[in-house]
Amino acid sequence: MTTIIKNGTIVTADLTYKADVKIDGGLIIEIGPDLSGATVLDATGCYVMPGGIDPHVHLEMPFMGTYSADDFESGTRAALSGGTTMVVDFCLPEPGQSLLDALNRWDNKATRATSDYAFHMAVTWWGEQVFNEMKTIVQDKGINSFKHFMAYKGALMVNDDEMFASFSRCAELGALPMVHAENGDIVAQMQAKLLAEGNNGPEAHAYSRPASVEGEATNRAIIIADMAGAPLYVVHTSCEQAHEAIRRARQNGMRVYGEPLIQHLILDESEYANLDWVHAARRVMSPPFRNKQHQDSLWAGLAAGSLQCVATDHCAFTTEQKRNGIDDFTKIPNGTGGLEDRLPLLWTHGVVTGRLTMNEFVAVTSTNIAKILNLYPKKGAILVGSDADIVVWDPKLEKTITAKNQQSAIDYNVFEGQTVRGLPRFTVSRGVVAIEEGTVKTREGHGRFVARDPYPAVSKALSTWKELVAPRKVERTGIPASGV
Ligand code: URP
Ligand code: ZN
Ligand code: ZN
Ligand code: ZN
Description:
The structure is a single chain. The chain is α/β, with parallel strands linked by helices. It has a single domain (51-383, 394-422, 440-462), classed as Metal-dependent hydrolases (TIM Barrel, Alpha-Beta Barrel), CATH 3.20.20. Helix content is 34%, strand content 20%. The strands form 4 sheets. A 7-stranded mixed beta sheet has the order 3-2-7-17-18-19-20. Strand 18 and strand 19 (432-436) form a beta hairpin. Helix 3 runs parallel beside helix 4 and helix 4 packs across helix 7. The chain binds N-(aminocarbonyl)-beta-alanine (URP) and zinc ion (3 copies).
């Protein structure tokens, strides 16, 4: 049974051209003019783009005494509704827990996924067992990226010596270290000080995690990665200080990537000043929203190529869950949603305004991360042989975002009331239509785990270079006599 996407304009990270796309067996099998087949999806007036890949989501995540409310079914359903055809979640071992045991748990949760998915593994503690299991994770389990939390002291946080050990192991294995970059020691001190002063509302969450604290940690992680000979991926880059560190590192030849979130691009710190506690608490996430100057820096970074991917860090908590921190902002579960809204919002605020080209849009929502995570061209491409993960994007469709109509399980939407222009006419997941003109046709369990090989080209090049410039003992020809 072949499917043809007909009469559309293909938009990839580097090309825009008119052609039809033929799909069979979940793959793209032909691209060209005037193709025919059993089922036709009419793409007249639409752009045919690689489906979005969200490299940063937390579905059913155990965190701050509760679980994030969207599981792999509702989370991936939300993703597909908004044109995202693959998500990458974080497997989080508890301190002392085997990485393989934790992965077992995540494998079980993910069987409900409606879109394809992959995992990053988190390094939340360090020891010989972690060192050994990292090899199994990379070589047998199809995971080539390891996340390190520099914040959440007393829970997920790891220290510099642990990061250096883990990053070095990543370099040996051809894997990519990732960081949540905030100085967790300073944040913990700031939280205690603010609470002691009676500053217990959600606005204090933002006061406790200023941009400088993120900039410092980003810079530190970059130096640790450079010393370890590893590339580095910095998640949820939210401010100029972190962007500046990434920009500077890249200009110095380091292989460092930065990931702004759609939330940080669109929403600003004034949300925390809202007189309604619930409004502000719903927007508590780490790092917190910043001001306009930081937002402009992130947009510029996407256009300039100093920042590579736009993610969501989708980690949705209900209002009831947010109420855990009613008297103490440090107990408000950190996280916001965005999976359904990432592409429409980025199109509206990026492409429609002229901040991004359509090709840059595809690059930062799909192709760049596919390359970074060694998924390309299976994902992130419209090429013969690629998975048929495709969004048929209608630039004329409009909607006003509202929790009433969303797929996410939570009872609000941080983008409530925003009108977006540009939405999927069809979202196709491995050849199967999952969304058709607003009708949800997702199938629980359709999603498959996507294994990723180690040693993407950048890791190979970096290890070759690091070997070439490694310190070498100076072989001297003679030892001078004493006293000379
Ligand atoms: O506030 C956030 N970002 N929650 C999810 C966990 C994380 O730090 O990514
Ligand atoms: Zn984080
Ligand atoms: Zn409100
Ligand atoms: Zn996250």
